[in-house]
Amino acid sequence: MPSINRRKFLSGTVALFGAAGFRYPIWALANPNGDRTPSPLLLGVDYYPDQTPEALWVEDARMMAEFGFTNVRIAEFAWALMEPEEGNFDFVWLRRAVQTLHKYNIAVILGTPSAAPPPWLTAKYPEIVEVNAQGAPLHPGGRRFTCPTNKTYRRLSLAIASQMARTFADAPGVIGWQIDNELTLGSSARCYCNYCQAGFQEWLRSKYGSLDNLNRTWGTVFWSQTYTDFSQIPVPLPSGGDPNPGLALDYNRYQSYANSSYLEEQLAVLRKTCPGHFVTTNNVGIPLDIIDLRSLYEKLDFVAFDNYPGFFEMLLHEQSKSGSVSWDYINTTIAMEHDFARRLHGKPFMIMEQQSGKAGQRTFSPQPNSGQLRLWTYQAVAHGAMGVNYFRWDTATFGAEEYWHGILNHDRSKSPGYDEIKQTVKELKALGQDLLTANYPAETALIFDYDCDWALQIQPGHSGLSYVAQITSWYGAIASNHSGIDIIAPGADLAAYKIVFAPVVYVLSEAQAVRIKSFVQNGGVFVTNFRLGAKNETSQMARTPLPGLLRDVMGVTVEDYVPIYSAKQGVKFSSTLAGADGESGIWGDILKPDAAEVLGTYTSGAYAGRAAITMNSFGKGKAVYIGADLDPASLNRVLRGFSASAGVRQLLDVPSGVEVTVRKSDRKRWIFLLNHTATVQTVDIPAPHTDLLTGERQTRTVSLSAYGVRVLQAS
Ligand code: GLA
Ligand code: ZN
Questions:
Q1: 671-692 confidence digits (pLDDT tens)
Q2: What pTM does this model have?
Q3: Contact 117, 128 (CB under 8 A)
Q4: CA count, 13 A, side-chain hemisphere, 512
Q5: Cα–Cα dist 132/534, whole Å
Q6: Number of neighbouring beta carbons within 10 Å of residue 557
Q7: Quick one: which ligand is closest to 138's CA?
Q8: Which ligand is nearest to the CA of 145?
């Protein structure tokens, strides 16, 4: 434990937060001693006393304490043990587990168990199961097979959560809660059951007020879909032809709302019953996009995500069935997920489950290379994590996750990652709270908009066009200059940023157009691409020449928009963007400059000679329209060029495969160097720094071992 003065820290926070009736900051809540002294760090492990013979609990707790862990998360799937029959609760075993852990100073995050309802429940209430997008009901026997709308499931979820809350509100050692587990992350993401249909109809009634309004907004006169009663409105199940795009978009919004409001019911009870505890949930960010995570996490105390880079590699292999998956792509996607997590609350986040070895169910990823487990932990911290729990302590010897390896092997010997994780936890403790709670400065923003994502999934225009893929490749291009990036909501304030990137703004609201306009007017640089402003929030097409609401800002008119299949379109760059000729992959917006300057031109096909990229001066700023779906090398060069011209500074020049990030508090600044490659890399630094991990002073050139990490501070 770093030598922080607990008493002083506590008295300060109590004065600040206690009197005002706020919840204590989480640091003050982690009180394994039960006396409100803070245990400042969340460096723990996911643990399953419910799956472990009680005779081993003491040994586990002792080993965890020796390992250096500060906390566990437990019980998130233990419904059957906590409520063996309806209304008959048994928390005796869980109390003993908490007490045992507490004895060894291991604090406890409790999970509410609603992701895995027991067989008595589904036998009695079979109607709670989810219905998938083909209209087929799921079946009990796995997990995450429930409907988020169903009132019986909600009532029973709330009952077990309330009983748990009452039982553990004052239990020494308990510090916080995780509600449910990875909402919507199962084999079927959205539910299409009768209860969801009724819930959708209710939601529409309050959104639209009248059927007239709804019919007009969706354009239901098309294909004779005019509704004369709310009860006639369907959910988008297979219907011989595509659904109405307005209905389909609203259905995605409804499903997101159903999950968030489901979570909020449990949250309300926990807030009331356990005012001294923090509450969060665990999920993963982009590329999974069923719930608007901004709403899901809005009222929670902090964001917690799960992080499995090695498992992600395996999934990519299984999806592509090809031999090579780029680790650059994986590292970039994970970095993006961290940046997304941090920006959801604009403050440090937690990793609730961090890969600790081979990971998977029927198939599994290999043991990460030596150094990678530590590297992946530091990558999270480098992007703003304040705490990490590893998944999981031991490895299950039964059940669907026998191959999801933990810190102990099946025979309870040390797993191959044991020592490395132990070392990492020790290092993070030494780096301390100052670093873990520090900010992450960013001059660049990337807009991620669920409406654009969902509307484009409903009508991509080209089967290869994906919003998430576009966001990921833009993030990768921008991140390659190693300056901080915030991934923001369309409604976020843009004023703090020098440059804002926003690919595929397929849905554009008036409010969003106004924000972008004033950002550019006041000197910001706005960079966007094809399909800008094609639709409004109701998923109807813009009725003005594109790019619709931003035509004046962009200074161009879109003459045509073209999916590209076999006839590739070449792109030639003007001297401003100087570089080898590029190619447009799957899409081309054909631009006619009104006021804008042409920076790129199509060179082949029917549109040869027409503008592909333009830049407009508007007010004090610039607005860039990239009509072409640029090849990765060109996109990289072009986006980096715009960043540089907006005044975004690249902190250090590093070899490919090395990541640089900065965290910053009022008084201190930490530079992270992360080597994602299997070879030694070197980085030149402009001034002497100390590596806080080794204590070595680095003067000019820092070397990074394979998968190595440095945390530097000016000295
Ligand atoms: C998830 C879940 C856990 C566990 C692990 C491994 O992300 O939250 O319950 O299933 O992954 O699959
Ligand atoms: Zn349902």
A1: 999 999 999 999 999 999 999 9
A2: 0.94
A3: yes
A4: 24
A5: 30
A6: 16
A7: 2
A8: 2
